[in-house]
Amino acid sequence: MIPEKDWKWIGTAGHFICGQWCRFHLTTLIGNMLVSTIGQYVHPRHSGGHEVAEAEWLAKNPHGEEIGPGRRYETMSFKAGKPCTGKRCGCGLPTIKSSEIEYGCYNDAKAATKGHMAICKKVAKTAKKAKKVKRGT
Question: Residue ranges of the domains in the chain?
Answer without folding.
Answer: 4-126
